[in-house]
Prior knowledge:
The protein is mainly α and 141 residues long. It has five helices and no strands. The longest helix is centred in the N-terminal third of the chain and has 24 residues, at 22-45.
Amino acid sequence: MTRYISADDYMRTFCIGMTITPDVRLQIETTLDLAAGHIDGARASVGAAGCAVSTAVADQLKMVNAIFAAVVWSCPCSRALTEEAKDRLLPYAQSVVEAIASGVLEVCEGETGINFPAIALPQIAWNDAIAAEIYNNYLAG
């Protein structure tokens, strides 16, 4: 399982002014691990569980991991969030996970999502050598 945000970053965001004992820290780390499962499941559904996370989406995954920990798993520091804030944050986090699972948001470094423009053109057999190459490619298939 991947934890996308460190406990220290989570505490700097949600635990401002709270006393963090070793027991509370352990609870935060455990909650972040549980919350990361939402993201890991979406990544696994599109075969992206083992790839390096793209730097372009790394911060977004940190935020989603933190939101799920605070809102879904009621991490100790989540009491600082109002119910209104939780109601706004959860749909955002769910939409990111859905975008990963649908392939709209690609999390792997060097890859592109389904909305990235692409074009495919057929090969044309201009001569016998190219015709043979096309046929061999077809057979290799």
